[in-house]
Amino acid sequence: MAGILNIQLNPVLGDKIKNLETVNNYIEQFSGKNLDLVVLPEFFSTGIHDDSFLNVPEDTEGGIVTEILSETAKKFRVNIVCGSVIERDGEKLYNTTFVLNRQGEIVGKYRKIHLYRFFGGNEHTYLEPGNLPPAVIELDFAKVGLSICFDIKYPLLYKNLIQKGAEIIVSPSAWSALTSLKPKEKEDFANCWRAMNICRATESLVYFVTSNLAGRPFPFLYSIGNSMITNPYGVVESCMDENEGAVFTDIDLKTVRDLKESTPIAFIE
User: Which strand ranges, in their side-by-side order, compose the sheet holding 136-138?
Assistant: First the structure.
């Protein structure tokens, strides 16, 4: 068995130190568990308000976010998927997730390929699409594939990750909807999100982990929460509501490994 802590954050806009302290507190709260992996949301350290995350991008090593989380990883002896940050590389900005091992070392990173540019989204106007190969990071307990938020709409990315051996795929997210939606529309929107999580897990025969934002960064927008861990049979092991919080889930990696032997879908066209 392996233990995953999914943290769903309603960040204080622009206050990286406060948000990192909140993350540390949640990890400490669950430190008595068998913690193998902590997954954080997209833009967890800043929120998704343009002014809050574009004013001070991180460097190519993750800046203050990975610097502080490195100490957290070492303190609690846990691997961390560091949500995502705005990373500056030369004159270009990327939406990047970094992975830390239990020693606090950066062991991989991934730059979001599929930027959100629909229904009023403007991520593509200030960020570059990822220029790194899809990443599967071999940690001490599992092989973890990386994706970010809107990537969930593109199954071929996940095909690539399972061909590289991914047993768990993570997706730090900031999945949000308009507050003007009617109650039925809001429920339909959340159901679509849940369905995509289930599809990505069962079609890839992996544990699929999404850590989403909560809260309302703009009067007209709210983050839907619903951070999930779904097993390779499409069964939802945990699903949060719309509020900030953290959920610990034990997963059985033997299930994934047995399925990869009996159902080798990674290499079937």
Answer: 136-138, 143-146, 168-173, 207-212, 228-230, 236-239
Predicted pLDDT at 145 = 98
User: Residue written as tokens 């970094």?
Assistant: 98
Partner residues linked to 210 by β-bridges: 171, 228
Residue 82, pLDDT above cutoff 90 = yes
| pLDDT value of position 75 | 98
CB of 251 closer than 8 Å to CB of 232: no
Which residues, including other chains, have CB under 8 Å from residue 201's CB and lie 6 or more apart? Answer: 169, 207, 208, 230, 231, 232, 234
In sequence order, the 6+-apart residues with CB closer than 8 A to the CB of 67 are none
Instruction: Give CA separation, 229 vs 169, 189, 255, in Å.
Output: 10, 18, 14
Domains of the chain plus CATH, in order, are 2-262 (3.60.110.10)
What is the DSSP secondary-structure string of 209-241? EEEE-EEEEETTEEEE---EEE-TTS-EEEE--
CA distance 120 to 101: 37
In the 3-class helix/strand/coil scheme, how is 113-141 assigned residue by residue? CCCCCCCCCCHHHCCCCCCCCCCEEECCC
Contact predicate 57/17, CB 8 Å: no
Split at pLDDT 50, 70, 90, the class of 175 is very high
State the sign of the Cα–Cα–Cα–Cα dihedral 147, 151, 152, 154: negative
